[in-house]
Amino acid sequence: MTRIAFILLCHKDPEAVIGQARGLAASGDAVVVHLDARAPQADWLRLRDGLSGQAGIAVVQHRMRCGWGEWSLVTATISALRLALERFADATHFYLVSGDCMAIKSAAHAHEMLEADPADWIESVDFFESGWIKTGMRDERLTRWHLFNERDRKGLFYLSLAVQRRLGITRAVPADIRPMIGSQWWCLRRGTVEAVLGFLDARPDVRRLFRWSWIPDETMFQTLVRHLVARDEIRSRSPTFLTFTDYGMPATFHNDHYDLLLGQDALFARKISPGATRLRERLRDLWASGRREFPAGGDGRRLHQFLTGRGRIGLRFAPRAWESGGSLGAGRVLLLVISHKRHVAKRLMGSIKHHTGMLATDYLFDEEDTDLPPMGGVERGLAKRSRHRRATLRLLYELHDTDKLAVCIDPSRIDLIRDVMDDKAVVRLLEIDARIDDTYLRQHAIRTDLAGESEAGLELLMPPLRQQMGAEVRELREAGFAGHYRLVEGAGPEDNSQALQAFLDVTPELARGIAETPHLFDD
458-478 and 414-421 helices cross at what angle (nearest 10)? Predict the structure, then answer.
């Protein structure tokens, strides 16, 4: 039976790592965590205490101070591997992941795939001839002495390199070793891990070669696995999907990449954005789901390169949601409650939420202080919401994981109503036909700063204000929108419940309960 021991290297965010380790171990697998010794002491204590006593989880106590491109990353990996071999005698595979990695398949699928194909999954291609290194130095990664960290001590790193070049100082690769290179994210069988660690103990010359090389986590395991394991037992590709930007940095995945990731021929993916909370939640659920069938998507790396290339020349893969042609999404339902009397509309919305549990928002495009979740800044200010109205609505659907949304809107926003009525989504309108008397008109004038608290000028304002409201309602009705229903003050509960039933697509009993909301039309 397959049991994976995950070697989890991390350097920050102990809470996220604790959740990640527990989630992986919950499937019956094992996890060994190494936290960079550079991390704050408080992070280390939180991680250690949070994982203490957890079944299937071990934490490396003697931690390394890790630096990018250094041997320290390999040392941390080796320490975690030795602990995993000691603590988890039944682990059959050892899978190296980071805190930015997440599963894009279920545990059941991963176990079946590894059991069906007894091989080591590690990208391993010729160091000198493959062209794997696209920019920067190649041969000198191995043939020079790298005594300093390139990122922390850049001046000394390049000075040392220049001195060695000038003096002709080189290092020889052992004659029986053919250097290989590939992604540092791999999954190896137990026998392979034991053979690699035993070889390193027996061959200090090989250990020294990689100890003083640059970025050894991309070369050492790749070289030794190829040296020790038969060719037909190596799958020369990483089981973790990742791709790079034009600048050579790992691309980051966000909430809208879920379907893309599931279609990749891999078990994990990196980097998952720390802010992609919805994506992280869905991928955690996926690992535990037991799902065995997955779509076959295209090559994610080629797709990413194509899309970023199109962006370079101003031709994105799809229009932004707030541009002409942006859509809320076919199959989604948008319900617009339209009323000049905002307190009546809000009272109705409260009743709808109470009876149906539906996501309902008050005057999203009319009132500054509408209660909204963080939405990347688009929630800030009426002008921004109105300008990016479809983006705002789409984000609400996605953040709440729903396909049905009710929103209050003022009849004066006929422009917005016309816009969304042309969308691919199903849009229905409920006009609240409430009596508007002079008292309400005065309150409206004061609320909208058309008049002050005094009576001065109010009598002159009443006729044009009444005329404006009447014209807005008339334009709405004459537009002839499909799915336009009316909730009429003074009508019987039977008539209003029929309108609500059609508008909300609910049972007659629910519609009747909403129609009989106490004091619905009161001022």
Answer: 10
Q: For residues 159-166, give the mean pLDDT.
A: 95
Residue 366 — very low, low, confident or very high, per pLDDT cuts 50/70/90? confident
Residue 207 near residue 168 (C-beta atoms within 8 A): no
Which helix (H) or strand (E) covers residue 328, if one does?
A: none
- pLDDT number for residue 373: 83
Residue pair 417/374 in contact by the 8 Å Cβ criterion: no
- Sheet order of strands, 333-338 included: 359-363, 404-409, 333-338, 426-433, 484-488
Q: Give the mean model confidence (pLDDT) for residues 357-381.
A: 83
**86 contact partners, CB below 8 Å, separation of at least 6:** none
Instruction: State the Cα–Cα distance between residues 114 and 120, nearest whole angstrom.
Output: 9
Cα gap 367→414, rounded to integer Å: 16
**What is the percentage of the chain residues whose pLDDT exceeds 90?**
65
User: pLDDT-based confidence at 120, cuts 50/70/90?
Assistant: very high
CA atoms of 268 and 291, how far apart (whole Å): 15
Closest CA to 241 of 252, 256, 226, 255: 252
Residue 514 amino acid letter: I
> Which alpha helices (H) appear in 367-492, and where do they start and end?
382-387, 389-399, 414-421, 438-447, 458-478
- pLDDT of 323 reads 44
Q: Are 344 and 434 in contact, with CB atoms under 8 Å apart? A: yes
Backbone angles phi, psi at 397, to 5 degrees: -55, -50
Between these two residues, 246 and 136, which has the higher pLDDT value? 136
Exposure string (b/e) for 30-58, b if CB count within 10 Å is 16 or more?
A: bbbbbbbbebeeebbebbeebbeeeebbb
Q: Are 432 and 344 in contact (CB under 8 A)?
A: yes
Which residue did the predictor score with more confidence, 323 or 446? Answer: 446
Whole-model pTM: value is: 0.63
Q: CA-CA distance, 402 to 357, in Å (whole number)? A: 11
Rounded Cα–Cα distance for residues 139 and 129 (Å): 10
Q: Three-state SS across 74-124?
A: HHHHHHHHHHHHHHCCCCCEEEEEECCCEECCCHHHHHHHHHHCCCEECCC
Q: Is residue 283 over pLDDT 90? A: yes
Cα–Cα dist 10/31, whole Å: 12
179/214 Cα distance (integer angstroms): 13
Both tokens assigned to 441: 């008109």
